[in-house]
């Protein structure tokens, strides 16, 4: 199966052909995939070199001229390094773009901590007015990319990953999707962690919701799943643990509930290893999730 990033350049290249407002801004990373698009649209595919602050600043300038820029590089270089430019050039100036990251969390362990950004969504959450998509499959990435580009002049962050669920679901860019119903609690699986959550909760009497758009947070969807009596909630996110616990607590503020946030830990894992080893070390594999979810909700398989 191809990856989400494999879909990125072909999808956006087609959008360049279809919509004269669309532009692409790169900082070396990913430029080869746009070779043909650069030939067709040299004025709308710009490579600024290894200058991430300029990457964001140039995209914001293009947005001010009426273009719809799609900005791409690794998450650590797209969100963390030029964060001041993201905050000021888009937010303060009241303009928008589509930021599309790669190498989410620990997707490329050999790159070391400089190429990891598990805190990217938490950092974006400090800014006002950003939509955040976290697809869990290449097909979903394609849908959400098109949704993001078509979203007027809104500010959108699309988080691509090499991790993927086996099957795509019909995501709409807005709401959580209930994929299993139960009575002992709600487990929200974000993006590429759905398969692990479904395996971990097999036989448990819990509701599983699937989230690929995490900002704005689907307050109404969680409240429907929690019911009028309230319930306990487990958030399983492929980035910094606890990123969405405040949003879940706010959604259920008037109902009795507890929230457990599972995700990438704060401790830096200094051995390269593999993606699978990092997943297990952070307790995000199905076996670890089964123990942690079952312990928090007080349920066992078949009970």
Automatic annotation (TrEMBL):
Family annotation (Pfam families): Transket_pyr
Keyword Isomerase: no
Transketolase-like pyrimidine-binding domain span: 2-167
Enzyme nomenclature, EC number: 2.2.1.1
InterPro entries documented for this protein: PDH/Transketolase, THDP-binding, Transketo_C/PFOR_II, Transketolase-like_Pyr-bd
Molecular function per GO: magnesium ion binding; transketolase activity
Keywords, sorted A to Z: Transferase
PANTHER family for this protein: PYRUVATE DEHYDROGENASE E1 COMPONENT (PTHR43825), TRANSKETOLASE-LIKE PYRIMIDINE-BINDING DOMAIN-CONTAINING PROTEIN (PTHR43825:SF1)
Name of the protein in its database record: Transketolase
